[in-house]
């Protein structure tokens, strides 16, 4: 199982680097608390599972070989990041207080799951990364399908755990009972970072 340990270490090393997926988990943890932000982590994990599965199915090669498909995917992802950034910039810091009741909990969790999923799935570079990474851990006769399943599932688990950790860090800020003004500034800063990330993704050559 040495290959699996090395594979997981490689995925963790990339996943822990701050980016849109970790940033949305952190922000949701700060706004909604760790338990609710686990829905964000679940959305991120589901998107990562789909991306890893797409890479194993050959979609990564299609993106590499088809410039038009890659551009379309990239621009759609960039547009969503900008939209999310603007939405977070305009949202009120006390929105969660209005939805804190038990009847609103499923609706809030669904929105957090959706945001976590869409932020993660909006980055086509993840599929390209998995397309390049997976072959490095294949090649043993008779075991490739088993390894592929193990690696794909591991990607989802790692994505969930990393997002959950970032959500926990955000929840620490919530536990400090910061003022609404401070929370508003955090939301605006996060929204600005998402807009910047969307513009950066659209402008990138890869």
UniProtKB/TrEMBL annotation:
Pfam families, alphabetically?
LysE
Q: Give the record's keywords alphabetically.
A: Cell membrane, Membrane, Transmembrane, Transmembrane helix
Mind telling me which GO cellular component terms the entry cites? plasma membrane
**Where is the protein found, in the record's own terms?**
Cell membrane
State any single GO MF term: amino acid transmembrane transporter activity
Membrane topology term: Multi-pass membrane protein
Segments spanning the bilayer are 67-86, 117-137, 149-169
How is this protein named in the record? Answer: LysE family translocator
